[in-house]
């Protein structure tokens, strides 16, 4: 006979408690107990409760290995009827044996309906560190069950593969939004939809009457950054600054030679460069930068309100003035093919010609950002990382413990970019070096991003050092290697030219890989998602579509033609509502470095988590101090505002 004291913690979220009956089976090295009921008079397992039970084992099972949790409907009907929800969110079990220290069994999962769940004591273990046959078998059974539950499918050929589910309703509770988050999300959307509906804008298919009328959107929602955009969107310096700190700060690169299909001349740019210099001199000095949207060339466009839309594939040449001067646009060509029908637009051109050319570039930025920087890099690829983790890493694995144009045009863009996508693009330090933008001033995405990358890298290095004593230990972790291999095959379609590893050979490679995953799923997503409404609320700054073709000559642009080129009223409203929702976290926030689910029970990883949080707090203080001196603060990479993972 052996007596154990069992403490159970139920989550505090709405609906986390249950009327169902719970029992446990204690599995040890010498056998296992029968199911032991956890039963008091009345309701147990209410939301937010921690409850104690005493259970008696008929025989000694030896040192405890596992805890099996069983959940079943009560003998009598539930007070709310047989159809009432019976899911239970269990945070953890704590088992106090007759002798020795209590054992904590993290759970942090929903249990739906009747069934059983196997929990392990909270110490993380890599695959080669589990020596007992019972624990080895448990790992295999957990992964087998998850691989049956979470399967891959091809959504569109050429895209990363994704979870094989039809609707959100089919998802397991453990990978759905919480009830509170889901409710907030839909309430935000409903309020925005209703307001624009009442104003008569949502159903209006015609053109905006004037730029002044577009400000009616701001009566719906606004932010200080959106107001700043509406006041400065026509300025050349602000236009150029958005390539550094706007919602798509990943495309600008240093230009060492002019592309042959972009025949800019000294005479064209002399008014901006000034006397005593030339294009060649500035190319050699490294003061010229290029933004090339060539991937948009010939892309399929959408039909809006029965009208075909248009796109461009522009090239934009930028100039960094000596010292810490502003970045300025020098020249814009709206196609990849120079010639009489593809003039090079210049700041010295007529005001409306130049403004229209810049607006076409901003439309290209919208398309590139939404399809590639945001959807592909910040949602589709992170889904691959997460799904492969669910399928290949058990809960006890240390990595599991550490760690969202029309459809035709978007699809084609993603397929094109997948053929070019390289591992180095996903690793911020390499990406910055490759693009040659290490020293361009005022590049806050780079500055803040590099600080956060460094903090994540140090945290990951400490955690890897705890569980992987050598390079051999990395190579011998079959679950880790399966995770990396599945990301390569399902996410990058086994394309060797991507440079994406299909295996990891060293601790250094593992640190870079895990840092990339965490950074992509947190900071990178925040940088390219949180500012969407700020950039697009004033629609001419980032038009989602264009109703007239790009100009083929100069001197033809007029105010009325400019407005006729922009999206119609209803399309503007649709996009602004969508980007308002995508920019606003709908509650239940978990900032970067915050781990309310205490999966780690050992002291060493808990110390590393605390140190990581301290480093992020220090980074935040520096960012906020700098922002006090900026007319337009850059907040998208302030650690408290970064979600721990992609949550919207």
CATH homologous superfamily descriptor of the domain at 2-38 and 46-75 and 83-143: PLAT/LH2 domain
CATH architecture classification name of the domain at 2-38 and 46-75 and 83-143: Sandwich
The first-level CATH class of the domain at 2-38 and 46-75 and 83-143 is given as: Mainly Beta
Number of helices: 19
Shape, please? elongated
Strand residue content: 5-15%
Largest sheet: 5 strands, antiparallel
Radius of gyration, in angstroms, nearest whole number: 28 Å
Kindly state the number of beta strands: 18
Summed over residues and divided by their number, the pLDDT gives a mean of 87
Helix content: 40-55%
Topology-level CATH name of the domain at 2-38 and 46-75 and 83-143: Lipoxygenase-1
Uncertain regions: pLDDT < 50 for 5+ in a row?
none
What class, by secondary structure content? alpha+beta
Distance between the termini: 52 Å
Binding site for Ca(2+) 2: 39
Organism: Propithecus coquereli
InterPro entries: LipOase, LipOase_C, LipOase_C_sf, LipOase_Fe_BS, LipOase_mml, PLAT/LH2_dom, PLAT/LH2_dom_sf, PLAT_LOX_verte
Subcellular location: Cytoplasm
């Amino acid at each position: 006979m052996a007596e154990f004291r069992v403490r159970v913690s139920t989550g505090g979220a709405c609906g986390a408690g249950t009327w169902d009956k719970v029992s446990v089976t204690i599995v040890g090295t010498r056998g296992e107990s029968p199911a032991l009921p956890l039963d008091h008079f009345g309701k147990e397992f209410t939301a937010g409760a921690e409850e104690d039970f005493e259970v008696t084992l008929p025989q000694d099972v030896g040192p405890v290995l596992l805890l099996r949790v069983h959940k079943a409907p009560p003998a009598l009907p539930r007070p709310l009827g047989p159809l009432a929800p019976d899911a239970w969110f269990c945070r953890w079990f704590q088992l106090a044996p007759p002798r020795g220290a209590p054992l904590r069994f993290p759970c942090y999962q929903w249990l739906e309906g009747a069934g059983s769940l196997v929990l392990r004591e909270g110490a993380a273990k890599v695959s080669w560190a589990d020596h007992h046959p019972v624990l080895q078998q448990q790992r295999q059974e957990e992964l087998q069950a998850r691989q049956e539950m979470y399967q891959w499918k091809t959504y569109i050929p050429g895209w990363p593969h994704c979870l094989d589910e039809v609707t959100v309703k089919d998802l397991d509770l453990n990978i759905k939004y919480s009830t509170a988050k889901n409710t907030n999300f839909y309430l935000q959307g409903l309020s925005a939809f209703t307001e624009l509906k009442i104003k008569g804008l949502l159903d209006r298919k015609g053109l905006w009457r004037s730029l002044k009328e577009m400000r009616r959107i701001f009566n719906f929602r606004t932010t200080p950054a959106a107001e700043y955009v509406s006041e400065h969107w026509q300025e050349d310096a602000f236009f150029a600054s958005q390539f550094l700190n706007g919602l798509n700060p990943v495309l600008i690169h240093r230009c060492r030679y002019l592309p042959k299909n972009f025949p800019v001349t000294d005479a064209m740019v002399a008014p901006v460069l000034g006397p005593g210099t030339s294009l060649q001199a500035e190319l050699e000095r490294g003061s010229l930068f290029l933004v090339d949207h060539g991937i948009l060339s010939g892309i399929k466009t959408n039909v809006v309100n029965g009208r075909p839309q248009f796109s461009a594939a522009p090239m934009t040449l930028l100039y960094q003035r000596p010292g810490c001067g502003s970045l300025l646009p020098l020249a814009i060509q709206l196609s990849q093919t120079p010639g009489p029908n593809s003039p090079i637009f210049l700041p010295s051109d007529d005001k409306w010609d130049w403004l229209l050319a810049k607006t076409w570039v901003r439309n290209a930025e919208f398309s590139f950002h939404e399809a590639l920087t945001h959807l592909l890099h910040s949602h589709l690829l992170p889904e691959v990382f997460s799904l492969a983790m669910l399928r290949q890493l058990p809960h006890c694995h240390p990595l599991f413990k550490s760690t969202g144009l029309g459809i035709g045009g978007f699809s084609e863009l993603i397929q094109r970019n997948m053929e070019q996508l390289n591992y180095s693009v996903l690793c911020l330090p390499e990406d910055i070096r490759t693009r040659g933008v290490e020293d361009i001033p005022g590049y806050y995405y780079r500055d803040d991003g590099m600080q956060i990358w460094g903090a994540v890298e140090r945290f990951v290095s400490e955690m890897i050092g705890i569980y992987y004593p050598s390079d051999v230990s990395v190579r011998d972790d079959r679950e880790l290697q399966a995770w990396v291999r599945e990301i390569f095959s399902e996410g990058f379609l086994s394309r060797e030219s991507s440079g994406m590893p299909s295996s990891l050979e060293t601790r250094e490679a593992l640190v870079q890989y895990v840092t990339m995953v965490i950074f992509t799923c947190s900071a990178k997503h925040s940088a390219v998602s949180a500012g969407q409404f700020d950039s697009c609320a004033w629609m001419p700054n980032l038009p989602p579509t264009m109703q007239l073709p790009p100009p083929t000559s100069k001197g033809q642009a007029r105010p009325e033609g400019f407005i006729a080129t922009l999206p119609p009223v209803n399309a503007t409203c649709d996009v602004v509502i969508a980007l308002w929702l995508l920019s606003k976290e709908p509650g239940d926030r978990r900032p970067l470095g915050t781990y309310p689910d205490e999966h780690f029970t050992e002291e060493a990883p808990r110390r590393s988590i605390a140190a990581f949080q301290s480093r992020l707090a220090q980074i935040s203080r520096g960012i906020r101090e700098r922002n006090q001196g900026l007319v337009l603060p850059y907040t998208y990479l302030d650690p408290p505002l970064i979600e721990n993972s992609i949550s919207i």
